[in-house]
Amino acid sequence: MEIQSVALLGAGAVGSYVIWGLAQKSGLHFGVIAEGARAEKLRQGFVINDTVYHPPVWTPQQAHGVDLLIVALKYGALPGALDTIQTVVGENTTVMSLMNGVDSEEIIGARVGAEHLLPALIKIASRRTEDGVRFDPATTLGIIYGELNAPFDSARVGAVERLFAGTGVNLRVTEHIREEMWCKFRLNVCNNLPQAILGAGIGCYRDSEHMEAIRSGLRNELEAIAAAKGIDMTKVDASTVHGSPAAASARFSTLQDLEAGRHTEIDMFSGALMRMGRELGIPTPYNDYTYHMIKALEEKNDGRFTYDGSEPLCWSK
Length: 317
Description:
The protein is an alpha/beta fold. It folds into two domains: 5-175, NAD(P)-binding Rossmann-like Domain (Rossmann fold, 3-Layer(aba) Sandwich), CATH 3.40.50; 179-301, Orthogonal Bundle (N-(1-d-carboxylethyl)-l-norvaline Dehydrogenase, domain 2), CATH 1.10.1040. The protein contains twelve helices and twelve strands. It has helices at residues 15-22, 36-43, 78-88, 104-112, 155-164, 177-198, 203-207, 209-228, 238-241, 253-259, 267-280, 285-301; strands at 5-9, 29-33, 46-48, 51-53, 57-58, 68-71, 94-97, 120-123, 127-129, 132-134, 142-145, 171-173. Helix 5 links the parallel strand 11 (142-145) and strand 12.
């Protein structure tokens, strides 16, 4: 089995890492899926680490039947993209989702068939700037992937490994992909969210006992839910739990979204844990509070709390 054609859905901060690695690979049929105004914008090119890239832009119909579809969307865009994904996936298409959270494979698999999914995650500290997307290839941990069940050295696992060989993209196969995904989920929930509410760099966890207490509360709730679902995160090497080194001033994706006026992926993080907590009878007060605070910050960005003094009076209760 060899992968000769690859389509990418989602050319943002995560998708840029794939473009950076695969756009110049010799002999590979590679394109980005987009339509309408988005397609026109992508055709103008975009900058990754100071280099302008112009990968081919395909419609879903043009991408139908590719050997590999990589999904790198924001969580909120996934429901509206399921028809596109279904159009692209052919009988022999493998799908890898590099989305945050722990349920995108389940959502996509429900539409196209779970047999097409090769579970994966990505660890990358990328950021949008006025000059495009930036990341440090040397410190990027990259893509981690693997089969949920044996044989773990399947034909498609080997094919993906050969696809990325020599591209600069860091890649690692694991026999514990479910646990790896939950470890990344834990990093996102505990590191992304408190920082986003405070509006400070990640050094706040090191420098404030109060921020560390909030992070610990979120972690305890997540680990209780994972244990109830039979997910043993201790199977994952301690060295793989940690993300890339970052400056104390670094902003993770949720704070980046809020500062740019975008909606966040909070439904994928605390929202998902709240739902799982209810199903399992596990209280999630830290995640409940975090969810509603970030939703309120999104509303603030949307202008809901912009007052000019002419509104009816409010009364304290």
